[in-house]
Amino acid sequence: MNKTVKDLQNHFRQLRLSETAEELPQLLREAEKESWTYLEFLEAITSFELGKREEKSIGRRIKWARFPYIKTLQEFQVEEQTALTSRQLTQLQEFSWLEQQYNLILLGPPGVGKTFLAIGLGLEAIHKGFQVYFVTMGELIQLLKTQEFAHKSQVQMKRLQTSDLVIIDDLMYMAMDQREANLFFQLINYLYERSSIILTSNKSPEQWTELMGDQGIMTAILDRLLHRVEVIHMNSDSYRMKNRQHIF
């Protein structure tokens, strides 16, 4: 019996099902204990393998998303702010807006949870099967300016452009020159009606033109960003200050 199990385990490994091979003895013991039918046993094996593959896929997509930290929506204390109700947060988690290429703009001063909420939605989207990419505005400008000659930037830009959801953090926190503005417009134009975008910013869209320096380009960018969008104003007290830790 043991030899037969080992032979089967080797067969599973040859089929590149190494985790199922390791789990096989336990599955056999459970099958004997519960008197599974052949069909039930096959169901248990295939369900185990599919579950492991999905687990690996989620882990890989989380790694590719490049989140600066991991925060889930379960940790987001919706009762501590007035920008979203529990019902609205639940509606966002259904991701019909993502399937329809709607954008989200999260506005508010530093510390109110804009990035926290964006990351939480990004993680939830990954678990629902979507591809997500997170980038700060500073990192994005650097990628756009170096993608023509830097292989690493080319790889990251390809992942960004093929994502279902792109999160751009700290939009317009710094001024852009003419070349940077053109590159940013080209990206927004490419993503338009291909992907959804979550933008976080401490400045309203009316103020973005001041930092862009080119009203024509900014108007074209806003035209695409605001075509289908939900703007969420997060103007409550700083989450970090309310939940700060003390030395004494």
Strand order of the largest sheet: 2-3-4-1-5
Structural class: alpha/beta
> What best-fitting shape do the alpha-carbon axes yield?
elongated
- The number of helical elements comes to 12
Largest sheet: 5 strands, parallel
**How many distinct beta strands?**
5
Topology:
Blueprint (H helix, E strand, L loop, with lengths): L1 H13 L3 H17 L3 H28 L20 H8 L2 H4 L3 E5 L6 H14 L4 E5 H10 L4 H11 L3 E5 L8 H14 L4 E6 L3 H8 L2 H11 L3 E5 L5 H4 L6
Parallel strand pairs: 1-4, 1-5, 2-3, 3-4
Please give a quick description of this structure.
By secondary structure, this protein is α/β, with parallel strands linked by helices. The chain is built from 12 helices and 5 strands. It has a 5-stranded parallel beta sheet with strand order 2-3-4-1-5, sandwiched between helices.
What does this structure look like?
By secondary structure, the chain is α/β, with parallel strands linked by helices. Helices cover 57% and strands 10% of the residues. The chain has a five-stranded parallel beta sheet with strand order 2-3-4-1-5, sandwiched between helices.
Task: For the structure shown, list the relevant keywords.
alpha/beta; 248 residues; nucleotide-binding; single chain; elongated; AAA+_ATPase; five-stranded parallel beta sheet; 12 helices
